[in-house]
Amino acid sequence: HGHSMTATAASLLPLLATAHFPSHLTTRRPNLPIAPRVSQFISMQSVAAPEPTLIPGLSASDFQHPEDKRASQLLKTFFAPVELALRGAFSTLVEDALFMDNIASGVLVGPRQLPELHQALLRSCKLLSIETAPDLYIRQSPYPNAYTVAVQGRRPFVVVTTSLLDLLSPTEVQAVIAHELGHLKCEHSLAIAMANLVLSPLASVSPVADAALQSRLLRWQRAAELSCDRAALLAVGDVRAVQAVTMKLCGGSKAYGKSMDVEAFVEQAAQYDEVADGSRLGRLVRQSQQREATHPLPIYRVRELQRYSDSGEYATLRARGRPLGEGTGGGAAPVAPQPVVA
């Protein structure tokens, strides 16, 4: 991210594995934390998307990808003392430094500042059963990106860059915000920091075992991204809008964004598999592309979301809910903003 902060806070940040939507296609593990389907295809331009439903008592486990859910539950079950220590360190040493960096160099969204984005944040929080909205900051950057430190502390936040706002439609921007809220709801940064602390001693004791566990950790991080794509789908109700975010981050532009075809992009996954499955070299290339990736391959990501949106699991979850305005006075109830303590 490149902005200055205290040395103590900076030393803890790599452990927290900040969750983000990537603004580029690199699959390498980032040095600094910047912490974003296939049945019958339907044109997003021709068919109205279903409205999201308000699901009472929605929990993270309701929408988490199976691999993400298993890993998260395992850590919380067996390493509770580590979790408490990390929460304390984060609250004492990191939160205020991050707040000062964001409040000094970003634009804090609120009822009077970019109110349409503030409403998108509150709406997404309501749909994801997040009681207290995080701060939302807009920061100037030539790279389309969004990130959060996914820990539910005193000062949770989401950052969205100006380039991302320029690239996406309002619904797609809400999908990005909801994706980051998914990381916060699942507390992915905290869970992955716990895993890193547990695994650190292995590096010197058994490099082979460490490498195998690091590979599993990366698989978990990729599954965590799929969980948060599901959160975005729950918040906007339109699978094409969520898929469009990934497509535009791959190759979108302000000039041609409106004429891009999400269906055609999703179909690229089948073309990729045809080559990857067709030879030993193809399989090796696929393994190489995914080996150190913190995010799924974009085409696999959109296809996985399509499969989830067509699944009985998603239909059952939606059936638990009701239209957002029903029983709430015709609209989303406001979510109290995160209090700011000087």
Q: How large, in whole angstroms, is the Cα Rg?
A: 20 Å
Total strand segments: 7
In DSSP terms (H or I, runs of 4 or more residues), the helix count works out at: 15
Question: Which series of helices and strands comes N to C?
Answer: HEEHHHEHEEEHHHHHHHHHHE
Instruction: Please state the overall shape, judged from the principal axes of the Cα atoms.
Output: globular
Derived structural class: alpha+beta
* Spatial strand sequence of the major β-sheet: 1-5-6-4-3
Biggest pleated sheet: 5 strands, mixed
Q: Could you tell me the strand content as a percent range?
A: 5-15%
Query: CA-to-CA gap between the ends?
Result: 24 Å
Helix proportion range = 55-70%
* Uncertain runs: 1-15, 23-46, 328-334, 338-342
What is the averaged pLDDT score?
Answer: 81
